[in-house]
Model the fold of this input.
Amino acid sequence: MTKKTKVLLCEDDPNLGTLLAQYLKAKGYDVKLLQDGEAGWEAYTKGKYNLLLLDIMMPLKDGYSLAKQIREQDQQTPIIFLTAKNMRQDMLAGFESGADDYLTK
Done:
């Protein structure tokens, strides 16, 4: 039995989040979907994930803050921002907060 890759997906848009989570699950990933940064942090501290997919504009804690908080404890787990923010300064802020990659919606 192979172990599934665990993905923490933090996306506040319920439609996009559900669609993306369903797609990843269909591809064999074990996905935990949360809709705000605080819930994302709580899930991160309680679980072990192989990949973190974060939106930037989320309630309670934005993706930049969440990524910085995670990077204080974990330099290894890949963080990818999946966001509507497509300006150069947004991308630079994403990488400065600890992202490994930055994709626009």
